[in-house]
Structures are given as structure tokens and as C-alpha cells.
Amino acid sequence: QVQLVESGGGLVQAGGSLRLSCAASGRTFSRYGMGWFRQAPGKEREFVASINRWTGGRTYYADSVKGRFTISRDNAKNTLYLQMNSLKPEDTAVYYCAAQVAGTKYDYWGQGTQVTVSS
To answer: Is residue 89 classed as helix, strand or coil in its secondary structure?
Structure first.
């Protein structure tokens, strides 16, 4: 069982920045692929970014956040990050982190953290 707890969300003006964190339980965090997803009101959950297993893993981004968001991980701290810069009102959503324990399916999800970007 893996527990994920997000933090760092809040209210920010357009053009501002936030850094989300996702603290993971367990001693094998470095073996998990990790991802960030978001869900805006009335919309389906969508992929934001992911990072492969191990330190310095390959990263992937949704086109809508490429160049503005950066995903990273600190395996010594069992923590995943999402640095969000140049935020836009359309980035407003609940942001979730998720873990791939085996394969490509995301097996575990956090409870989410609200990000609100005002115009």
C-alpha cells in the first residue's frame, strides 16, 4: 500500500508561481513512476506531467503546460514536486499525484490539492 499526500496548492494571480509537493509512504519510492494529473470543474481528469523511476528519470508533459511546469523528484525524501510558473486561469483545478508501482497503470492516488489562478 502506498499513501500519497499532496500539498502546496492555493490561490495565485495569473503569471504567478506555485510549487506542489507529494509526499509518499514506503521505502521503495525510487521504484515508482510518478505523475501529476488535474481535474477542473465539469471536466475530466487530465494528464499534466510524469517522471520515470529512479533519480533523473525521463519526464513527459502535456502540451498545455510544456515550458511552464517542471516535474521533479527527491528519492531521498520520498517526495515528488511540480513547479508551476506563468500560471494561467485555465490552470485552475484540483491537482493529484499518482504512483505507478508496476507497469504503466497508476495504482495509487493522492487526495488532491486545489490550485486557483485568478485573472
So the answer is: helix
